């Protein structure tokens, strides 16, 4: 018979090991971004903000940062709009082969990003489309659309259908029901899908690497820096990427999930 005290201690040890396994690499990354030396390796020689200053003074890094934000926000907006339209159509209308359509919409979630990127690269080459941030954005729409569709579709219930039916009875056109009734009711799910899409697009590398040429996103620029070896500057850039990702998730928690819980 295992004593309650032993179970409690084992639980805390397990939690410490679990969170240590997840967050220790990030903690080391952030710690050595403040390294007062040329290499981000022990021993820790002191604290300096020099490398963060170099990051924000680097025009190529700032350009890549702007590209990442632009692609992430733009592709996430498109993915959310398309995901909402697809979810509304499949949830509110009887369409031919609707189960097959739902399966095809979520299928990219089960496919490797590498396979998707290679397929898109072949398609763009066949169509004669030059690689740019536009092609990266299209690739990110492809990977984020299934996520947006799944989140929004799962939140569409019968109580919303009754409200939509009442709006039609009062003379609302279908586009008014969709934009002024359904979309506001589903806004927490739409915002959740948007912020998660931005998070995934923000630090995605494989698609951004294969589908870009001269204008690159921040993960691709970081990869270029790593080819010349490790230094605290790369740690500082990685810390900035991590900080933005955490900030997006905190906004998602504060704006969407807590508001939904209160309701």
Automatic annotation (TrEMBL):
Gene3D superfamilies the record matches: MetI-like (1.10.3720.10)
Topology relative to the membrane: Multi-pass membrane protein
Cellular location(s): Cell membrane
UniProt keyword terms in alphabetical order: Cell membrane, Membrane, Transmembrane, Transmembrane helix, Transport
Entries under PROSITE patterns matching the protein: ABC_TM1
InterPro entries per record: Bact_Polyamine_Transport, MetI-like, MetI-like_sf
Annotated Gene Ontology cellular component terms: plasma membrane
Transmembrane segments: 12-34, 69-91, 103-127, 133-155, 190-214, 234-257
GO biological process, one term: transmembrane transport
Principal location class: membrane
Cytoplasm recorded as keyword: no
Domain ABC transmembrane type-1, chain residue ranges per copy: 65-252
Pfam families membership: BPD_transp_1 (PF00528)
UniProt record similarity statement: Belongs to the binding-protein-dependent transport system permease family. CysTW subfamily.
PANTHER family: PUTRESCINE TRANSPORT SYSTEM PERMEASE PROTEIN POTI (PTHR43848)
Protein name per Swiss-Prot or TrEMBL: ABC transporter permease
Organism expressing this protein natively: Thalassospira profundimaris
């Amino acid at each position: 018979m295992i004593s309650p005290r032993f179970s409690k201690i084992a639980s805390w040890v397990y939690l410490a090991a679990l969170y240590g396994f997840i967050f220790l690499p990030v903690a080391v990354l952030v710690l050595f971004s403040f390294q007062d030396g040329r290499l981000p390796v022990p021993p820790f020689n002191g604290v300096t903000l020099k490398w963060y200053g170099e990051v924000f003074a680097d025009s190529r890094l700032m350009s890549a940062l702007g590209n990442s934000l632009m692609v992430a926000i733009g592709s996430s907006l498109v993915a959310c709009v398309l995901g909402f339209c697809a979810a509304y159509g499949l949830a509110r209308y009887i369409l031919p082969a609707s189960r097959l359509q739902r399966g095809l919409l979520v299928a990219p979630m089960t496919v490797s990003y590498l396979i998707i990127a290679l397929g898109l690269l072949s398609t763009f080459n066949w169509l004669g489309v030059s690689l740019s941030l536009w092609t990266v954005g299209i690739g990110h729409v492809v990977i984020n659309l299934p996520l947006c569709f799944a989140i929004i579709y799962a939140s569409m219930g019968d109580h919303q259908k009754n409200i939509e039916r009442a709006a039609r009875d009062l003379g609302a056109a279908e586009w008014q029901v969709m934009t002024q009734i359904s979309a506001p009711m589903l806004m927490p799910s739409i915002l959740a899908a948007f912020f998660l899409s931005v998070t995934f697009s923000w630090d995605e590398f494989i698609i951004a690497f294969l589908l870009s040429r001269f204008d690159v996103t921040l993960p691709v620029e970081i990869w270029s820096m790593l080819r010349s070896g490790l230094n605290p500057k790369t740690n500082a850039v990685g810390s900035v990427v991590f900080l933005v990702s955490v900030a997006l998730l905190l906004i998602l928690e504060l704006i969407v999930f807590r508001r939904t819980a209160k309701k």
